[in-house]
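Hey, I'm writing a tutorial for new members on how sequence and structure tokens pair up, and I'd like a real worked example in the thread rather than a made-up one. If someone can provide the structure for the chain below, I'll link this post from the tutorial.
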Amino acid sequence: MSTPTPTNRELEILQVLWRRKEASVREIYEDLRDELPIVQTTVQAFLRTMTTKGLVAYREKGRSYVYHALVEPEPTRRRLLNRVLQGVYDGAVDRLVEGAVRLQPPSDDELAKLRLLLAQLEGEAEQRRREES
């Protein structure tokens, strides 16, 4: 069975769990309520669905459940990014990157990291060309 892809709201709940490691329904609700129009019973309903989907699990602690993520952040982000890359940009990495930096221009620190990444990628491409010839 493949790992399920979370919906946008499920991803928001997962981000709370990744940050906290584990949390009760109330703690998740308290983390989200200032940014999202959500009530505690909605968080609880999402967590039930996410448990069924295999995204989260829980343990009992007294009269409440404490949830933790069953999926890791980076593989989940890669799956979501690949879905956008393939579904929206037809696999064109340059268009995806251009769209991202036009939407949110990078800071000077981020630009420096991007330059390093490009240099690394160019070096790897040069190495592959040498190996192929």
